[in-house]
Automatic annotation (TrEMBL):
Molecular function per GO: ATP binding; tryptophan-tRNA ligase activity
Source lineage: Eukaryota, Metazoa, Chordata, Craniata, Vertebrata
Xref: PANTHER family: TRYPTOPHAN--TRNA LIGASE, CYTOPLASMIC (PTHR10055:SF1), TRYPTOPHANYL-TRNA SYNTHETASE (PTHR10055)
Gene source species: Gymnorhina tibicen (Australian magpie)
Family membership: Belongs to the class-I aminoacyl-tRNA synthetase family.
Entry EC number(s): 6.1.1.2
SMART domains: WHEP-TRS (SM00991)
Protein name according to UniProt: Tryptophan--tRNA ligase, cytoplasmic
The keyword Protein biosynthesis is assigned to this record: yes
Keyword Ligase in annotation: yes
Start and end residues of each WHEP-TRS domain: 13-69
Name of the gene encoding the protein in the UniProt record: Wars
Broadest EC class assigned to this enzyme: ligase
UniProt entry keywords in alphabetical sequence: Aminoacyl-tRNA synthetase, ATP-binding, Ligase, Nucleotide-binding, Phosphoprotein, Protein biosynthesis
């Protein structure tokens, strides 16, 4: 029957059921807003009530918008309380598996969709460009509504890109480049506007630093971002501490989000406690607001219906699950997302890197000698204990950090495959693999440093001044 849920609901996880209820609720609101025929609205409402009943039967909990099932989301943003599960939230990534986080499980847990070959092929057809190696190699592995973005693009409808950086230190590391390198590619192949949020307010609230220091880090990080090669005529970079005080549209969207998310919901999503400062509790609305084009009236000429696409690491997804839940209730389109895997620490894929540990990654300020020393001394090896064993049994690329780094930064697919076969067979030794990584990273970092030297304070000001970009809306 059209007004009853599909018979496969019993096979869905609690989180998948939660997503189905949320989507159906959005459909009901859209039908009512569009003044659809009464029988169509009634059928959608019956479906919604039936889905809510299935959800309660499965979880023992009443459905609450924006608050996923308690057994799946507590302070770990989508992780269960089982000790063998990965911990993934905007501030922590932990796993006991040397291969890193189990991303297939994470897709199921977060309720996103896998980026499969069909989607990658569709991106290639839409853009006429070979897919970025981050897509080809599964570095960007998950999405929400990318098919809708492609529908819009193919029908000549606009969209825009939004990504960000939390400026917790003066020097960024190479892992921080991943979303920006990919976002730059997306901007070029789709030719769309880009907004980049620097959450200096967040770092002031979470870190032991002054507000002046947080703002200083934001401007220094902006130089590294600009050095990736973004076009000043198509890109707006903003500091929350600056922009929030000058944009009525931005602040109004923040307030709208704040009104539609309860304290109970943000506790469930982000793990806030009664002892957290109120700044932390209200911050998710600030990260949500750039998802709406009306936050940037100078760019979009006041238009409110332009969809946003957000490339980010999967640990940021809780912010945008909340945003996607709120969006229909404040008359805004849901943002779409593209999720990347985590960039591993040199010491292994069990944790993500820390800007406070200089040996956890290669920083954009490192010298060629420092890069060589860090890789030789700290890069976790998938090789055997002795040369004899390695020649006989081969190395393990799944846990070898040098090989992992090469999957991010060595663009030649054939060369990467040759290295994988040689290392796995034992023909290539760990030291030789590290040498390839050193020879890959030294010129990459040096070239970035040269570009950054050309980024003056005046150029930063140009990127960070609210203005019209080279697009007509």
């Amino acid at each position: 029957m059209a007004d009853s849920p599909n018979c496969d609901l019993k096979s869905l996880s609690p989180l998948q059921l939660f997503e189905r209820v949320t989507e159906q609720g959005d459909k009901v609101r859209a039908l009512k807003a569009g003044k659809a025929p009464k029988d169509e609205i009634d059928a959608a409402v019956r479906m919604l009530l039936s889905l809510k009943l299935s959800y309660k039967t499965t979880t023992g909990q009443d459905y609450q918008a924006g608050l996923p099932p308690k057994d799946l989301v507590l302070i770990n943003n989508g992780t269960t309380k089982e000790e063998d599960e990965d911990l993934v939230d905007p501030w922590n990534v932990q796993t006991s598996n040397a291969k890193g986080v189990d991303y297939d499980k994470l897709i199921v847990r977060f309720g996103s969709s896998k980026i499969d070959t069909d989607l990658i092929n569709r991106i290639e057809r839409a853009t006429g460009q070979k897919p970025h190696h981050f897509l080809r190699r599964g570095i960007f592995f998950s999405h929400r509504d990318m098919d809708q973005v492609l529908d819009a693009y193919e029908n000549k409808k606009p969209f825009y890109l939004y990504t960000g950086r939390g400026p917790s230190s003066q020097a960024m590391h190479v892992g921080h480049l991943i979303p920006f390198l990919f976002t730059k590619w997306l901007q070029e192949v789709f030719d769309v506007p880009l907004v980049i949020q620097l959450t200096d307010d967040e770092k002031y609230l979470w870190k032991d630093m002054t507000i002046e220091k947080a703002y200083e880090y934001a401007r220094e990080n902006a130089k590294d971002i600009i050095a990736c090669g973004f076009d000043v005529n198509k890109t707006f970079i903003f500091s929350d501490l600056d922009y929030l005080g000058t944009s009525a549209g931005f602040y109004r969207n923040i307030v709208k989000v704040q009104k539609h998310v309860t304290f109970n919901q943000v506790k469930g999503i982000f793990g806030f406690t009664d002892s957290d400062c109120i700044g932390k509790i209200s911050f998710p609305a600030i990260q949500a607001a750039p998802s709406f084009s009306s936050s940037f009236p100078q760019i979009f000429n006041g238009k409110e219906n332009i969809q946003c696409l957000i490339p980010c690491a999967i640990d940021q997804d809780p912010y945008f699950r909340m945003t996607r839940d709120v969006a229909p209730r404040i008359g805004q389109p849901k943002p779409a997302l593209l999720h990347s895997v985590f960039f591993p620490a040199l010491q292994g894929a069990q944790t993500k890197m820390s800007a406070s540990d200089p040996n956890s990654s290669i920083f954009l300020t490192d010298t060629p000698k420092q890069i060589k020393t860090k890789i030789n001394k700290h890069a976790f090896s998938g090789g055997r204990d002795t040369i004899e064993e390695h020649r006989k049994y081969g190395g393990n690329c799944d846990v070898d950090v040098s090989f992992m780094y090469l999957t991010f930064f060595l663009e030649d697919d054939d060369r990467l495959e040759q290295l994988k076969q040689a290392y796995t067979s034992g023909e290539l030794l760990t030291g030789e693999l590290k040498k390839v990584l050193i020879e890959t990273m030294q010129p990459l970092v040096a070239a970035h440093q040269e570009r950054r030297k050309q980024v003056t304070d005046e150029i930063v000001k140009q990127f960070m001044t609210p203005r019209k970009l080279a697009f007509e809306f």
